[in-house]
């Protein structure tokens, strides 16, 4: 049973991690929390659904459908995130720290209600691009779906790691994250790098949206809220602004939830309480998160 | 001066706009019209509209009758807001609603203070009507319902599990709502009384998506449960079914649930994982009721593009019972309608409906059905 629960926790954690990365990337560069990120996730899953519904013959099922959904959801969600940054955050960037935060909440409400009013008020069935089969491994039943989720999430995280650590743009991103003004003086176009960061974060959110839809089989206008809140917590737990921290935080939260409902008697209804209590304790001991660094106040 | 003149002008225009018009009387339909339970509420709205249109066409009343829809979003807070709106509209004479027990219970308190009659077509928690007999009830007895309650439904499902399916050990899940938890408790009571054993009991939250950890625990439980009884609504039921199948939990490990899960939305959430799930429904499905044949045909003719929902014939009946009471009361008077509703002896799509001293229908029939996703149907099991 432990192995089975670990597999459950890994799948859940993988989705949380992907979403948490979107929060942490943006925070790392702007020290701002993109509250609209949960809606970007939701829009990603709706775009994937739209593709499968509009072109069922090409993208309804199979590997083609899977790749198509990911490509569309990731580019679409990335671009939406860039547009949000351009319209709602950039004009407010130098006004105050709170203004973009409020603006983000506003964008979140607008997007959620837009989908509510124009698309659907109810749960919509999400297509199944992979046939669900079960594999028995060491007494645990692993479904093909869980494998797809895990593999694609890990692949995306590896890609992100490569991009940030080993490319020129990634280097520019890290430079901006360290000190955006100095980076600008060194000839880096900060606006461009910020937009890029939003694109990458949004794309990961879009991918998470597709995984979320596949995992639970149905999507709804408000689906982003709960995983968004949890992933945000995961990002804080790992140390917001830190990429490895977001991944670690996501998996820890996934495991905590699974262990709480799997091993504590009557734990399912206490799941969130238990998970968040542990998080609070961790933050009491390490206020900057598990992998977060204590940054001296900039004067 | 010009400002004051403008004000006077505005008042005159307003008064003219509110001047005598053709008199309309409204029956409020307070149900979830959006959100996950929106499909059910929309069905009820259509059913009440159909009843009202039929009455208008037959010129049963010297005034125009109207179904006024209100959206409670299946949210108890919103239900109270809606109830206040309903009460403050003098044209509304009675209410068909609410769908969820969690909404009907607090909304009824608002209606009681008006007072205005509420006839629920779907809320099955006993408390919805039982609260009227409590000492702090502010108002007359004015809550009625045309559906049997969860004590009947839960114990029926327990007997079914024991006798028909031969289950001895069951595990219980519920969604912590008044409806879901209430239903699960009634099942538990009857299952224990019948000699069965409840292996474990867990609550989940409405809106939760991931039940894999919980289901894994149930699957590996050394006490070996033979099935799950779930008290809750179709979204969670569908996700539970889907994740059960993914974990390889298939019949003869059975999934049994109640009327809140028995709707076509279950197939949208669970797909073919819904196959074989047992779901009880209060009353008899409209398709199997000889007395509902005319209603089924009229509904199809009036709304050819809409799926008829499992509670629609109850909504239709609730509206007809209210209209009969208005007729007997001799006019759209809220209090007289309440008095007349108590004396109801209605012959309609549900057969004969009589309300007992709590306001509940005396008909206590429950039907067990089995989900078949290919046909998008729930077949009766006898």
3D structure, described in words:
The complex is a heterodimer of chains A (299) and B (382). Chain A is mainly alpha-helical and 299 residues long. Chain A has a domain at 22-223. Helix content of chain A is 73%, strand content 4%. Chain A is built from twelve helices and four strands, in the order H-H-H-H-H-E-E-E-H-H-H-H-E-H-H-H. In chain A, strands 1-4 form a two-stranded antiparallel sheet. In chain A, strands 2-3 form a two-stranded antiparallel sheet. In chain A, strand 2 (134-137) and strand 3 (140-143) form a beta hairpin. In chain A, helix 7 crosses helix 9 and helix 11 crosses helix 12 (271-285). Chain A is globular. The model of chain A has no long low-confidence stretch (mean pLDDT 89). By secondary structure, chain B is α/β, with parallel strands linked by helices. Chain B folds into two domains: 22-148 and 289-354, Rossmann fold; 151-282, Rossmann fold, CATH 3.40.50.2300. Chain B is 42% helix and 20% strand. Chain B is built from 13 helices and 14 strands. Chain B has helices spanning 2-17, 38-57, 76-88, 101-113, 127-130, 150-164, 178-193, 212-219, 234-246, 265-270, 293-302, 312-329, 334-342, and strands spanning 24-31, 64-71, 92-97, 117-120, 143-145, 169-174, 197-203, 227-231, 254-257, 278-282, 345-348, 351-354, 366-372, 377-381. In chain B, strands 7-6-8-9-10-13-14 form a seven-stranded mixed sheet, covered by helices on one side. A five-stranded parallel sheet of chain B has the order 2-1-3-4-5, with helices on both faces. In chain B, strands 11-12 form a two-stranded antiparallel sheet. In chain B, helix 3 (76-88) packs parallel to helix 4 (101-113) and helix 12 crosses helix 13 (334-342). The N and C termini of chain B lie far apart (79 Å). The chains are: A mainly alpha (299), B alpha/beta (382). The interface between A and B is large, with 39 and 37 residues.
């Amino acid at each position: 049973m432990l192995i089975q629960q670990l597999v459950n926790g890994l799948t859940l954690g993988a989705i949380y991690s992907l979403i948490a990365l979107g929060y942490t990337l943006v925070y790392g560069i702007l020290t701002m929390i993109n509250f609209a990120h949960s809606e970007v996730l939701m829009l990603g899953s709706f775009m994937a659904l739209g593709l499968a519904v509009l072109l069922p013959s090409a993208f309804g099922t199979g590997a083609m459908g899977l790749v198509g959904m990911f490509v569309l959801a990731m580019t679409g969600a990335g671009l939406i995130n860039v547009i949000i940054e351009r319209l709602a955050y950039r004009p407010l960037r130098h006004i105050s720290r709170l203004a973009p935060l409020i603006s983000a909440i506003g964008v979140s409400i607008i997007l959620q209600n837009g989908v509510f009013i124009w698309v659907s008020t109810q749960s919509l069935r999400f297509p199944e691009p992979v046939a669900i089969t079960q594999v028995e491994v060491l007494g645990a039943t692993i479904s093909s779906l869980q494998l797809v989720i895990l593999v694609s999430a890990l692949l995306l995280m590896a890609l992100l790691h490569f991009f940030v650590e080993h490319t020129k743009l990634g280097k520019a991103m890290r430079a901006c994250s360290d000190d955006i003004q100095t980076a600008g003086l060194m000839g880096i176009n900060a606006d461009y790098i910020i937009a890029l960061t939003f694109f990458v974060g949004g794309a990961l959110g879009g991918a998470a949206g597709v995984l979320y839809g596949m995992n639970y089989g149905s999507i709804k206008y408000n689906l982003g809220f709960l995983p968004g809140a949890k992933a945000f917590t995961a990002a804080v737990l790992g140390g917001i602004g830190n990429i490895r921290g977001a991944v670690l935080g996501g998996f820890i939260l996934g495991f905590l939830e699974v262990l709480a409902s799997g091993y504590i008697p009557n734990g399912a209804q206490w799941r969130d309480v238990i998970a968040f209590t542990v998080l609070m304790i961790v933050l009491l001991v390490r206020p900057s998160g598990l992998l977060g660094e204590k940054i001296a106040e900039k004067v | 001066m010009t400002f004051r003149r403008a004000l006077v002008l505005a008042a005159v225009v307003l008064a003219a706009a509110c001047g005598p018009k053709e008199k309309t009387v409204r029956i409020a339909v307070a149900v979830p019209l959006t959100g996950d339970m929106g499909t059910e509420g929309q069905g009820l709205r259509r059913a009440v509209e159909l009843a009202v249109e039929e009455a208008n066409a037959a010129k049963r009343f010297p005034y125009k009758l109207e179904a006024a829809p209100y959206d409670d979003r299946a949210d108890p807070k919103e239900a109270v807001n809606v109830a206040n709106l309903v009460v403050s509209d003098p044209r509304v004479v009675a209410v068909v609603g609410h769908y969820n027990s969690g909404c009907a219970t607090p909304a009824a308190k608002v209606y009681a203070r008006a007072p205005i009659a509420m006839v629920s077509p779907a809320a099955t928690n006993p408390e919805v009507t039982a609260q009227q007999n409590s000492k702090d009830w502010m108002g007359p007895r004015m809550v009625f319902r045309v559906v049997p309650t969860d004590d009947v439904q839960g114990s029926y499902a327990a007997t079914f599990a024991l006798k028909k399916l031969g289950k001895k050990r069951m595990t219980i899940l519920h969604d912590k709502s008044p409806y879901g938890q209430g239903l699960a408790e009634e099942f538990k009571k009857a299952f224990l009384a019948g000699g069965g054993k409840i292996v474990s009991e867990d609550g989940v939250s409405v809106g939760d998506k991931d039940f894999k950890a919980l289901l894994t625990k149930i699957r590996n439980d050394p006490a070996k449960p033979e099935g799950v009884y779930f008290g809750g609504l179709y979204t969670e039921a569908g996700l539970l079914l889907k994740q059960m199948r993914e974990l390889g939990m298939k019949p003869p490990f059975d999934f049994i649930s109640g009327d809140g899960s028995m709707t076509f939305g279950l197939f949208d959430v669970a797909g073919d994982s819904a196959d074989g799930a047992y779901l009880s429904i209060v009353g008899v499905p409209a398709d199997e009721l000889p007395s509902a044949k005319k209603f089924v045909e009229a509904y199809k003719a009036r709304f050819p593009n809409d799926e008829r929902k499992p509670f629609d014939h109850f909504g239709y009946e609730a509206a007809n019972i209210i209209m009969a009471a208005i007729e007997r009361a001799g006019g759209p008077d809220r209090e007289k309608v309440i008095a007349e509703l108590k004396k109801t002896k209605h012959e309609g799509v549900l057969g004969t409906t009589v309300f007992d001293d709590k306001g509940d229908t005396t008909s206590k029939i429950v039907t067990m059905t089995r989900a078949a996703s290919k046909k998008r149907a729930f077949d009766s099991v006898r």
